[in-house]
Amino acid sequence: MNRETAITAAPDAESPLARRLSQYLDLTYSERDALRALEQERHEFEPGDIIAREDEALERMYIVGSGWLHASTHLQDGARQILRFIFVGEIATMFSVAWEYSAATLTAVSRCTLYGFERTTLGQLFREYPRLGALLYAVAAAEQVAMADRLTSIGRTDGMARIATLLLDIRSRLRAVGEISGSQFEVPLTQQDLGDAVGLTKTHIGRSLKALEKTGLVEREGRLIRITDVNALSDIVDFKDRHAHIDTSWIAQKH
């Protein structure tokens, strides 16, 4: 159930979006304030709640304040394909900004907080703060390449490599938004979620996870995942970390 609350951010509260973007570019005070100003409308969602449905009108954008979400599309045979997972500090509906409708179904994976604002506000932000527009464009480009990497993995590798690539990508993105600092993180996903993300059945997911654990490079304890040697696992599956660094040297420096 969606519970909406009007809020006013505290003067010293940092926007989760600003925290994420500042990983790549030193933001000015006015830029941080502009991002924080987007967060005047808070929505609370429970696991399984649908925030936006595929092909339906989309008038609002949402910044993730807490929790996990995923964007998915339904195939002709009734199956579901999870396109990507969405974390703290991301604009959850950015993938649909080019249209007036949602390009995918956005679903809460865990209990989460979203901050909503009108799509037109994003255009205003770009006009008034072109550095933020350029930075959001660069981040979106990096995300598209990361998605292409994962799709290549799905099409060209076995189950174990697909799961390893997904876990490495999740770890990289959680580190980019400051949610973790090491190689241990909690994954609130079911085997069905994992299967719908990498194109495998639940049976194959179970086998692939066991095979991955046998390498000694990944350990599991309930929902807790620990990657014991990130470099070794990355080498095995040819994983490229697209989120750790984004070149912003072409973006104008702050005044």
In short:
This protein folds into two domains: 3-140, Jelly Rolls (Sandwich); 146-237, Orthogonal Bundle (Arc Repressor Mutant, subunit A).
Distance between the termini: 44 Å
Q: Number of helix segments?
A: 8
Instruction: Give the ordered list of helices and strands.
Output: EHHEEEEEEEHHHEHHEEH
What is the number of independent domains? 2
**Widest beta sheet: strand line-up:** 1-2-8-4
- CATH level 3 topology of the largest domain: Jelly Rolls
Q: Any idea what the CATH superfamily of the largest domain is called?
A: Jelly Rolls
Mean residue pLDDT: 91
DSSP strand count: 11
What percent of residues adopt helix (DSSP H or I)? 25-40%
- Report strand %: 15-25%
Q: So what's the CATH class of the largest domain?
A: Mainly Beta
Low-confidence stretches: 4-12
Describe what you observe in this structure.
The protein is of the alpha+beta class. The protein folds into two domains: 3-140, Jelly Rolls (Sandwich), CATH 2.60.120.10; 146-237, Winged helix-like DNA-binding domain superfamily/Winged helix DNA-binding domain (Arc Repressor Mutant, subunit A), CATH 1.10.10. It has helices at residues 16-21, 29-36, 119-128, 130-156, 159-176, 191-198, 202-214, 230-237, and strands at 3-6, 41-45, 50-52, 60-66, 69-74, 80-86, 105-108, 112-118, 184-186, 218-221, 224-227. It has a four-stranded antiparallel β-sheet with strand order 1-2-8-4. Mean pLDDT is 91; it is low at 4-12.
